[in-house]
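Handout, section B. The chain below has 80 residues.
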Amino acid sequence: MARTRMKQAIRVLEHACRITTRLVSNSTSTTTKTGRLAKELEGYVKRLKRLEDQGRTKEFYQVLQNAQMKLINLACELLC
């Protein structure tokens, strides 16, 4: 049951990552902060997949929380 939820969380984060990466690449902004945040978000997805494979649930949810905050920061940068 826990693995299914972890896979679902990864899938949702991957989808958000694809959307934000598309927005960043289409952005006319000259700042590189959004690009850096998008790359870091992709790194979080890879790390979460690795943690899920290893079955490290406690660390998985800590990293997931950090990734969610990174996603919020990226969304704020894109909106402002």
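Note. The chain has one domain: 2-79. Compare this with the example in section A.
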